[in-house]
Design brief:
The protein is an alpha+beta fold. Helix content is about 40%, strand content about 20%. The termini are far apart.
Length: about 650
């Protein structure tokens, strides 16, 4: 089997087969054909430029999305080597052009054997060749040794031989890749999101000190430039700029057995944890051995310090990992010469030795900080003590809320109008604002598979409260009981009673606030519901437009203007201020009927930015929220006067 894989790289016929395999099985290479995979194409190309920066040869990376949604990534690295490849042959037995090997052969690149790169984000050598295979067209331009070269591809196939198209300054090197994603592969109506890409490039700039990343979106005339000399320390300060810090950022840097380890740690007054991990500048969103090492090290060091200094008594139990992570903001970044990821999309680091090295490096650095800064150390331990007491109170409160077994289970909340279907793949729970809308929804629903839970007033702002206080709130208790998943340590997705949880609130300021409070709760305490695609937002219409025998429901002012123009000026226009204004039939037809309705799926594409945004909008600090409101006041919509 191993020999077969090696033969796969021999000539252009095998290379073409590789391209065909990528096109037939894109999920194996970029994770699918959805918008996440679309963004992954850009990440793969930019990762190559970042690898040049890690190797010390690149200081500038420019990314541009053009008006036709083609993308250019240009760096000032060494440039792909040009010339016949020493071992790869084409179908006629002649040496392949090295650029074509890099761009079309699966498993090719300078990231094997340690020759071209000591550290690289690339793992399988399929990144750029996979992007090429999944692009309608791709153009590679190379500046190297005073010459400018160009090669063109269509759906991964070279269009003739590479050509020299000009000359450059002797010391002017670099690679420029331009590609247009193939709509034969990405068949959904999707396009790149500026904010998603900005978040990724910001992270890359934080974890790659000294590189300038410029991102231009010509579609909307937007641009951002990132350069952070402070690296991970700057990253933690950025995440915590809306929080009150207990101490300065603790920075740890060490190399162990060829593995570079960096970590930045700071405790704040927040009630949640914000910890992110990177391997060779790639955000490993599912964590891995480096994240495990960081967390276990912090827990052990804090317990050791508290015992040694009499802050934990002999009768007191040790702090748990949850106790030592409340209010923690931390980044861990490793640079490994041979990273092992769980998949090509690189979401989890698997190298077992990394855990040992990170644990040791963080323990040394953080314990030194605690010894040298007793005031900060006591503040951190006090935070952990408060967290431990609150967690114990929450555990007792949770026992009253959560069904531990069929025999002990609490009755479902009385206000819940349940459905008869028990197959969770078919059931839906509508969380509705107020009794009036709840009444319409209960009458208008399909009782077979749709359940209704009306909430009275606004639920607690869970960004500003610990779990013990949250579990004392009646509306939250009703919600947890209805879902059946438990919460916190006891959260179990297996207990979920409804496949879709749909937030349905009025299209006004109060409705938006209630929706935000619910989203905050789910994001902080039931993120798995979002990650697994169970949470939705209903889209009730804003207007009912009647003209003679025609009735139209529209969902925006733009749609309203268009409909009035089509129907004529003399129309009967009704603006829905709330769901309760709609009769049950109208609510079913426009918002609850699976055949007609529009639902927005809630996702967390960028956890760091979501974390920061929730903290800013819902946290204790007033100034950042005031600044946000002033900045965006002119773009506000649906403001009731």
């Amino acid at each position: 089997m191993a020999e077969k894989k090696n033969n796969y790289d021999v000539g252009s016929i095998q290379a073409l087969e590789g391209i065909e395999h990528v096109r037939k099985r894109p999920g194996m290479y970029v994770g699918g054909t959805d918008i996440k995979a679309l963004h992954h194409l850009v990440y793969e190309v930019v990762d190559n430029s970042i690898d040049e920066a890690l190797a010390g040869f690149c200081t500038s990376i420019n990314i541009t999305i053009h008006s036709d949604s083609s993308v250019t990534v240009e760096d000032n690295g060494r440039g792909i080597p040009v010339g016949p490849h020493p071992s790869k042959k084409d179908a006629n037995g002649k040496p392949m052009e090295t650029v074509d090997v890099v761009m079309t052969v699966i498993g090719a690149g300078g990231k094997f054997g340690g020759g071209g790169y000591k550290v690289s984000g690339g793992l399988h050598g399929v990144g750029i060749s996979a992007v090429n295979a999944l692009s309608e067209w791709m153009t590679t331009e190379i500046k190297r040794d005073g010459k400018l070269w160009k090669q063109e591809y269509k759906r991964g196939v070279p269009q003739g031989k590479i050509k020299q198209i000009g000359k450059t300054e002797k010391d002017e090197n670099g690679t420029k890749q331009t590609f247009k994603f193939d709509k034969q592969i990405f068949t959904e109506d999707i396009d790149y999101r500026f904010d998603t890409l900005v978040q990724r490039f910001r992270e890359m700039a934080f974890v790659t000190r000294g590189v300038t990343i410029k991102f231009v979106d010509e579609r909307a005339e937007r641009e951002m430039t990132f350069y952070f000399e402070g690296g991970l320390t700057s990253f933690v300060r950025y995440l915590n700029r809306n929080r009150e810090n207990l101490h300065p950022v603790v920075y740890v840097e060490k190399e162990m057995e060829g593995i570079g380890i960096e970590a930045s740690i700071q405790y704040t007054d927040a009630y949640t944890e914000s910890v992110y991990s990177f391997a060779n500048t790639i955000n490993t969103i599912d964590g891995g051995t480096h994240l495990t090492g960081l967390r276990s090290s912090l827990t052990r060091v804090i317990n050791d310090y508290a015992r040694k200094n009499g802050l934990l008594k002999d009768a007191d139990p040790n702090f748990s990992g949850d106790d030592t992570r409340e209010g923690l903001t931390a980044i861990v970044s490793v640079k490994h010469p041979n990273p092992q990821f769980e998949s090509q999309t690189k979401v989890k680091l698997m190298n077992p030795e990394v855990q040992t090295h990170v644990t040791q490096a963080v323990a040394e650095g953080f314990s030194t900080f605690l010894e040298e800064n007793p005031q900060a150390a006591r503040a951190i331990v006090a935070k952990c003590l408060t967290s431990a007491r609150a967690r114990d109170a929450a555990r007792k409160a949770r026992d009253l809320v959560i069904r531990k077994s069929a025999l002990e289970s609490l009755t479902l909340p009385g206000k819940l109008a349940d459905c008869s279907e028990r197959d969770t793949s078919k059931t839906e729970l509508y969380i509705v604002e107020g009794d009036s809308a709840g009444g319409s929804a209960k009458q208008g629903r399909d009782r077979h598979f749709q359940a209704i839970l009306p909430l009275r007033g606004k639920i607690l702002n869970t960004e500003r409260a610990r779990l013990d206080k949250i579990l004392g709130n009646n509306e939250v208790k009703a919600l947890i009981s209805a879902l059946g998943t438990g919460i916190g340590d006891n959260f179990d997705l297996e207990g979920l009673r409804y496949g879709r949880i749909i937030i349905m609130t009025d299209a006004d300021v109060d409705g938006s606030h209630i929706r935000t409070l619910l989203l905050t709760f789910f994001f902080r305490y039931m993120p798995k519901l979002i990650e697994e695609g169970h949470l939705y937002i209903a889209q009730p219409p804003l207007y009912r437009i009647a003209h003679k025998n025609t009735v139209k429901y529209v969902y925006s002012d733009k749609e309203k203007d268009k409909a009035i123009k089509e129907l004529g000026e003399k129309v009967n226009l009704q603006r829905y201020k709330g769901l309760g204004e709609m009769n049950p039939d109208q609510l079913w037809e426009t918002t609850m009927n699976p055949g007609n309705r529009t639902l927005l799926l809630v996702t967390i594409d960028d956890a760091t930015e979501a974390d920061r945004t929730f903290d800013m909008l819902m946290g204790d600090a007033v100034d950042p929220r005031k600044k946000f409101i002033q900045t965006h006041a002119k773009s506000v919509r649906n403001l009731d006067i």
